[in-house]
Amino acid sequence: MPIRSISTKRVLWSYAIHKGSPSGPPFVVPWYRCASNTSRKELDFDDMKQAYRAKNTGEIFRGWLVFKMFSYNKLVDYNQSLMKYGRKILGERGFHMLMKKTVYGQFIAGESRQSIEPVLNHYRAHGVRSILDYAVEEDISQESIMKSMGDVSPKTSGQASEELSKSRQLGKSGTRSEHGTQSALGSDGHRERTAQGKEKEPDLGAQFKAYQRFADRRFPQASALTFFYQGEDKCNERVGIFAEAIKASSSPEKDGFIAIKLTALGQTSFLMHLSYILEQVRWVFSVLTDSSLPLLDRRLTLPMFRDGLKKLGVEASDAQTEKIFQEMLLQSGSQTVDLIDFVYFFRPSETDYTQLFVTKDENGQPWPLVDSLTRAEVAQMRNVMARLETLAEKASHSGVTLMVDAEQSYFQNAINRLATKLIRKYNTKRPVVYNTYQCYLKDTEDLLSVDLELCRRLGVFHGAKIVRGAYMEQERERALQIGYEDPVHEDRSATSRSYSRCMGRMMDAVKNHGAGLMVATHNEDSVRTATQLMEEYSIAPGSDRVSFGQLLGMSDHITFALGQKGYRAYKYMPYGPVDEVLQYLSRRANENRGLFQSALHERSLLRRELFRRLTFGVLK
After folding, report:
1. Which pLDDT value is given to residue 596?
2. For site-directed labelling of 437, which of 298, 322, 326, 445 has its Cα 20 to 30 A away?
3. Under DSSP, is residue 576 helix (H, G, I), strand (E, B) or coil?
4. What is d(CA 579, CA 92) in angstroms, rounded to the nearest whole number?
5. What local confidence, expressed as pLDDT, does residue 198 receive?
């Protein structure tokens, strides 16, 4: 019996959260509250004098020049060639001087943690705090990237799409699968076997399988820092770098933040496999429960559990079934099991429970509905968690907040699960760990709501960084070429609406449950909406539970306006040697060319401030 596709997360997570129920979770906020017209003292994003008072005239000119340069597509398209020729013509020293006076100087705080201290102190003196981000990206070959991904499909994207197209038409039983595509355990939904009957490695399927074309996650353009697995020693080395950033971010005010990526701390193939397993668990719950209800409203009873397993072809005695169900009830604390109870009952590093969900293929051979991690992956999971706990422990003791960055959607289930484990352990007194939510993904609002409900049940403080997202081009291209549903919202306005609704839910959680929120955006409207929501919920501008973040070198008129009004404003402060951050800068220019082209307001402010200073002889 083939597993129906679970690649469409929206199907599995398309629930209404206790609609109309006065007893529903207190964090659920009506969407219309996110667009309130109430306002405390209006933020002025047009006051160029105040916005740039922390900048000298040379920095103002540099900002205007860089924004002007990046508004030309040709200049951005050929930026790597131009840097290559610039190095050849100017020599190493001359090239470094040029970069520090232009692009590097605009977006990078300095070469080392020690050298950026004056920059951090300067910004703090003007009401702006810092988030340290070590921006060095290893120069890794394509061959090494392929090796780091483990079992990578040698098929071209076209061949993969053709196979998936065929397999989605008919299931093994001769009927079309409910959600359009087969499960990716194999081309027909079954675990494949060799001629000798030996089970092949599981095919992790469309979204959760590695492909040669998309193995290098730096391309097409990724504005975020990208890490690849280069062995356990390298992961441990990165832990040391992150730990150094925690130490540098520590202050008497206990208001430091640092951001980390899970792909820096473990194998990407492990993260992808774990993500798929978690998707399988959700699929099993959806099959066992009443499909007429939204997923979070569904409740699993013992008779439903027993009958559902039989329909799936699972051979388990009533005693076995009841034993497992009773253990689920102990966790749920009620007489039924919901989605959260079910998903968190399963521990991918333990096989005792997943072995219950075993049916038989057409040859009578057993195969599981829910995959298990291999021994090597279990060891990898423990290593990753040990590294994460080392960093969370240091952050907790140093008064620093640890933000776990979001990454590509096919890693995100695993990242969310591991981040949640940290939140459960370390957010008992304050939000030490923040998870990140990318609002351009269709399932983000529902995922945030589930995480908020889980934290409410556990009595811990949730922490969330809300972003629009950094991998849109990659996600769209990969989904199109491989043949699964695009996980990204159809347009920018849908993403903005999602962003506002997520802010609304988090502001309610801040007010009623002590959650922590980082509003990471360069969008003026989103910032205004956030401050309006703070007023609605009577959250003071200086509250340590709501912060705002922008990238160094961008949106200074937003950051400084917030800081001067008493809000907790932060700048992401990337640092690293010139030669080792150029690729990072190059892709940032490519990814953000649309942002640069549309930043006419900011460029206009810079030009006007430059003119004002020159006119009145203010040449500081």
Report:
1. 57
2. 298
3. coil
4. 10
5. 37
